Each structure stands twice: as C-alpha cells, then as structure tokens.
Amino acid sequence: MITSRPWDDDKPHEECGVFGVWNAPDAAALTALGLHALQHRGQEATGIVTYDGQRFHSEKGLGLVGDVYHDPRVMAGLKGRSAIGHNRYATTGETILRNVQPLFAEFEFGGFAVAHNGNLTNAAGLRRELVRRGCIFQSTMDSEVFIHLIAMSEYSTVVDRLIDALRQVVGAYSLVALSNEALIGVRDPLGVRPLILGRIGLPHEEPAWVLVSETCALEIIGAEFVRDVEPGEIVVIDDRGVHSIKPFGAAKPRFCVFEYIYFARPDSVMDGTPVYAARKSIGAELARESHVAADIVVPVPDSGVPAAMGYATESGIPFELGIIRNHYVGRTFIEPTDHIRNLGVKLKHSANRAILQGRRVILVDDSIVRGTTSRKIVEMVRAAGASEVHMRISSPPTTHSCFYGIDTPEREKLLAAQHDVGEMARLIGADSLAFISINGLYRALGRGSRNAASPAYCDACFTGDYPVPLTDFDKGGSRQLSLLEEISAV
Ligand code: SF4
C-alpha cells in the first residue's frame, strides 16, 4: 500500500503555491521554475495552463514539479507567452488528477483557468446551492465554486464576473487566473494568504509580469519584486499594463502569522518582512522569555534552524547541529511494518551523537501539533547521550485548527488543546518545555504586544480568534463538515 509521509504528518502543511506570468517568451518554463521554488507549499500535485493567443494548453500530474515537467515533449506542448501554475497540498478533496489545479473551463466569453491558494469557508453551502441550480461539479475541491459562480454570473466581462463571484465567497484565498485577455491576481479582503507582483525585463523594455505566492519564486526566474498585491485587491494584467481594482470595503489586514514561523521559505520576504530575520528575532525573544541553563542550542532541522540561531545568539549558548536531516526522504513510502514505522522519525532526522553526548541540550522547533514527532526526537536526543533535553518552541501553543488553507488536525488531536504545558513536557519526555508567548511573537515581529481588539495578524490557531467567518464549520471550530456529505444531502 502506498501512503503519504508517514514521518511528516506531525506538522501543519501549507495548502498550495500559485504562480502566473504574462507576456514572457518561455512562459511554461518560467512557471515550472517558479513552481519548483514554491515546492514547499505543496508536494502532492502540480499543474500548468498556458495560452498561446488562440488556444489554452494544460499539463497536470501527481507528484513533484521536477517529476511532472522533466520531459521536454511535455514542456513543448505548453505553448504561449502566458501561463498560470499551481502546487497542491490537499486540504479539501482527495489528491486525484481531476482535483489538480489550475481548473479550466470554456465559457461563452472564452477560456478561463484559475489556481487557488487558501480555503473557502462557505464553499459547501455555495456548492449545494449551485448543484440545486443545475451545476455539475467535476472535482471535490472548494476552488471549483469559482468556476460555477463565474459561469452563472449575468455580468458580461470576465473581471465583472469574477468580482461577482468574489462577493459571494468567504474565506482566505490568493488566486491567479488566466483568460484570453488577461492574467488576473486576487488576494482575499483580509490578505490572509500571500500574493506578490513581480516584473521581468529592463526598464526600457516591454515587461513580462509575474504573480507569485512568495518572493523566492521571483529570484529563481530573475524577476524583480514590484509589490505585494494588497488585501482585497484584484490586479488585472493585460497588454496595456497592470490595473488595480479594489471592489471590497477597507478592512484591517490579518496576514497569516504562521507564514513567518514555519510555512514560507526563509529566503522569502512576506508583506515586507524578511522571513529569515523574523525567525531569528522570534528565537531571540523565545530565549528572553524562557531562558534555561544548558550547554548547546540544537535546532530541529530545517525549519527550526533560524529560530535556534536567534536563541543561541541571544542566550550566549553555542549553536550546534546536533540533529542532522536526511534530505533524500521521498514523498511517498511503501507502508512499513510496525517495527519499521516506529523508526520513522530516523528516516528524516538522525542524532549527531558526538555533539549530544553528555550535554544539556536546548532543542528548538517551530511548532508542536500532535506531539508524536517531538516525543520521538526528544527520545532520540536522549538515546544519543544528552544529559538534559529542554524543548523550546518558536510558536505559541497550537490550540485551534486552521480553516484558511493550512492543513492541521482536528482540535481534539492537537496536543496543546488537550494538555497544559507541564503535561505536554511530560508527554514528550522533555525536562522542560516552553513556547513563545503570543505577545512575544508580536514583539519579535516588531508589532509591540498583541492588540486583542484589533490584532495585526491572523493568529487563530494560537488564540481561536478567527478573523474570517467559519460558515461551513461546526461551532467549536474543530471539524470541517464533509463536502461530500453536503453534496449528498442535496
Ligand atoms: S489559523 Fe493559523 S495557520 Fe491558519 S491562517 Fe490563521 S495563523 Fe495561519
């Protein structure tokens, strides 16, 4: 039986990465490169749709970007100077080929492709209503409601139809869309999910424009950063340039704070803040808040590394690579026997015994979700001879599930939702455990303490303060109603 990431299911997962390019000679190749840079935002499937001025072309597959687009014949079929692409990590709908984005439809006004990062929180109700009105869905994804809402709209232009659709959806989303006439980017009204505008070409040249989930996708294609797409903004890019539309009323942005802690690549800049610097700053604040006497600071690689560097610098305790990560662990695995599965964490992480032996260790990680991996890592570090193991976490306790495009377990399965910090320390086997406080997190990001009446970020997984209504979800914010149940109830 093939199963997915048996060693990696104790982390929240980013749902998706999106990429779009307009007016570039190698649009498909640039898109594949951009998607490669965004691979950390989704590894289960990838898709590209291009437009050559007359026809749309599409190529999608399950697996990594490098696996799907390694064949020159595949790339040669993706003709045109405009393209959008998508990396998928499934949070709604199974990963089967018909669920792989970009989605594409032929409308009366021409072809239209759309790729979505995020999650709609009223998709089930919308879908039920659309099915009642005769729509036939091809996938089990929330994103498909965009296609049907656009098809059902009575407005005449693509952009008006899209605005009409956006006014009906609720959720956290960044979209890139491609029509016969334009590349379109949209960021949800609170800007929970990221979207960035970039440009390729010298100032005196006709530019190519790109839309990306993270700035690391600009670097790889030699594009320059222009600006973040603003919360609630629609950018329409056509042969006349870039046009900005703001169809929603002004709202205070609530960007996802977990992007700084874990999701974004450390070389990206999110909403003006370099992620690497943010993580070091969070680590330094963590050291100020929860100092403990120890011999070495050891990150749980890779995501814990910058925070551990910040912790080490602030505390004056030496930074050491006491855990080594194996980068060659595949994304899928033939399900092993129980005995081998129990060794699972060692497939990804190995203890560096020469560093750990006899030392008092501060282990720095970015989050604790179920706690299963933390327990195994603490056990592994002890088995390698550490005399004490103190766990320090660069996020506040994850007490609530995310419904905005990050895959987290149901609330009942979140360790911090069920236990206080002392019990958690005992359960993972650490001598001590501490998390950065929510105010410490805000301070580390240069925001002062958290203003409870008007927080600067979405921090719902730490506070339960959900900024976007959870229409499809039960009142406790713990379980997503089944889309398939919703559909079968029609
Ligand atoms: S709930 Fe957490 S992970 Fe989800 S968008 Fe908000 S801060 Fe990000």
Structure description:
This protein has 490 residues and is of the alpha+beta class. The chain has two domains: 7-254, Aminohydrolase, N-terminal nucleophile (Ntn) domain (Glutamine Phosphoribosylpyrophosphate, subunit 1, domain 1), CATH 3.60.20.10; 274-461, Rossmann fold (3-Layer(aba) Sandwich). It contains 19 helices and 27 strands. The chain has a seven-stranded antiparallel beta sheet with strand order 5-4-6-3-12-11-13. A hairpin with a 3-residue loop joins strand 9 and strand 10 (183-187). Helix 5 (144-152) packs across helix 6, helix 9 packs across helix 10 (305-315) and helix 9 (275-289) packs across helix 17. The longest helix is centred in the middle third of the chain and has 15 residues, at 275-289. It is globular, with a radius of gyration of 23 Å. The two termini are 34 Å apart. Bound molecules: iron/sulfur cluster. Iron/sulfur cluster binds at residues 172, 192, 256-258, 402, 404, 406, 458-461.
Name a few traits of the molecule:
alpha+beta; Glutamine Phosphoribosylpyrophosphate, subunit 1, domain 1; 2 domains; 27 strands; disordered C terminus; binds iron/sulfur cluster
Write the layout of secondary structure elements.
Layout: E1 2-4, E2 13-14, E3 16-22, H1 27-37, E4 45-51, E5 56-62, H2 65-68, H3 72-77, E6 82-88, E7 103-107, E8 110-120, H4 123-132, H5 144-152, H6 158-166, E9 171-179, E10 183-187, E11 196-200, E12 208-212, H7 216-219, E13 224-228, E14 234-238, E15 241-245, E16 255-256, H8 258-263, E17 269-270, E18 273-274, H9 275-289, E19 296-299, H10 305-315, E20 323-325, E21 332-334, H11 338-342, H12 344-348, E22 349-351, H13 353-356, E23 360-365, H14 372-383, E24 388-393, E25 406-407, H15 415-418, H16 421-428, E26 432-435, H17 438-444, E27 457-458, H18 460-463, H19 483-488
Parallel strand pairs: 16-27, 19-23, 23-24, 24-26
Antiparallel strand pairs: 1-21, 2-25, 3-6, 3-12, 4-5, 4-6, 7-8, 8-9, 9-10, 10-14, 11-12, 11-13, 14-15, 17-18, 20-22
